[in-house]
Amino acid sequence: PLWFQQYWLRVERMTAANGCDNGTTSDAAVLAALGKKRYDLVCKARLLVIGAGGIGCELLKNLTIAGFKDIEVVDLDTIDVSNLNRQFLFRRAHVDRPKATVAAEAVQQFRPGAKIVAHHGNVKEEKYGVEFISKFDVVVNALDNLEARRHVNRLCLAADRPLLEAGSTGHLGQVTVIQKGQTECFECQAKPTQKVYPYCTIRSTPEKPVHCLIWAKNLFDLCFGPADESNLLTDLANDMKQFQTQEAVDGEEVGKNMFAHIFQTDIEKQALLEDLWSEKRPPPTPLKFDEASKQAGNMQTQQPATEQDGAMLDSQRVPTVASDALGFVAAVKALYAPDRRSLIGQSTFSKDDPMAMDFVHCAANLRMSNYRIDRLSRWDAQSIAGSIIPAVASTNAIVAGLEVVQLIHVLEAAANHKKLRESRCRTIWVRYPEPSRKKILQPSSLQNPTSTCFVCGTKTARVSLRAFSEWKICAFAKTCVQGGFGALRPALYYNGSCIFDPEYPEPSEEAIEEGLHPEWTLTEWGLKTGSLLQIEDEGQGFSCNVVITEDPELSEEQYPTGFSVDVGAGGDEAPPADAAAQSGEKRKVEAEAETAPPAKVAAVELDD
User: Fold this and answer.
1) What is the pLDDT of residues 462-495, one digit of tens each?
2) Which residues contact 580 (CB under 8 A, 6 or more apart)?
3) Exposure of 271 in the CB half-sphere (CA atoms within 13 A)
4) What's the CA gap between 38 and 531, in Å, rounded?
């Protein structure tokens, strides 16, 4: 709207006119810019902002300058040096401090009288449940992963609170409004899921760098994390246990032993599996530490230096095999250092953990050397391992500004007792550098809830499993229900009886007293093809029905995890892929002045 386009210039002029030389925003300036009615709505609104990263920093700044005075912000992360180029509220002195805390302190200076409360924690924790969400008038998202966005979507539906959902990927961005019973929820449209690779490819026959990175991430979790039956390298678990100790040991010696076992002995065993190899795919080559590290000493690239290399960062150069060998041992030594040793057996891989990233980068590169795959720089390895798409600060700024515009529309609609689809609320798409119709911003009308959505609709989801007898109920709950449906702490019911309770995830006397047996298979629980299960997740206020089917012919190549989830099938309805295409056509027809972007843009990943 024109009033918002003029807003910043008017604020700047009127702030100066009201003598606010210290950079704070005066109420008089905001009142003049917004008008009395909007100003009153803004001042009274109680907001929850989830995420204080790339979009979150811009959003918090915009909200405080726009006059909002009661804001709480939740974020799990701490500040990393890599955040400083686009998350402008942070400085080098803030590194390793909680993002939520620092962001709240920074924007408090823009409006000293505002109440800004920071929460350093995971929004999926129990204390941030439905009751917590219900305290706020509107929830504004600036999250960086699909799982958390699904969780917040379900919390807002359960609490019946409007949710502003936003995301950015490079030059693309999106802002939309979600309200229970009035608009599509976040899960009404199919979202792209992370590609899953066949077990044999990761374990024995990698062909691409990403295969080796996935292997290395699983190796890190196996060596330094808690026991996990779903780890792709469980066959190495017994061998790796000998290295897993919190006692004082020579970390360098442990690193060399790990190297010998993983990159030499195990590769020799793999090379003997003659059925896997051919002229086109020769067997892997073992690496011996002494030979691999002979020429080590610096982090030089294998290619001769060029003039262009001078402009590259060290992290953008591909290290030698020797450097990777020494780097692997150094990473293990660091992980066994006194200040880190207590985390052995509890750690999980994070791209923002320098030690974990060093381990995974060097391990992946060494495996690439085993299999004659072109190795990666640390920069590229971190991008792939963390599924990172480079962020664009200007896109984050545009998206955050659009969120504030839509937020004010939501408040006006509530004050005028209007439904959101009858208000000025819109879904806004950011399209650059190839905008449609030469317009970077493309609005489209909000859509009705999808009746086939298994979250906000009444649809029954379907799950196909390769063999019921191979699935323990605890593994089904963790891998399929939590992983496939995004549930947090699901309880499972069959024929009115609870067959899995998240309070008893492992076999125990207490579980037996409650009539629960987490170790029983689906077959032992009496489940058959066509059985109807109920999923209840009190943590998310979410429930749905699931029909399970046994399908021995389920493709191992296409579904290496042993199950497939269909949340839109049933009867003679279109399968999920067709449904997504139909949704794209629906948007195309219903949008009036502006055409919505193709369906493939419907799920925009977020900057962190």
Assistant:
1) 899 999 999 999 999 999 999 888 899 999 999 8
2) 189, 190, 599, 602
3) 15
4) 53
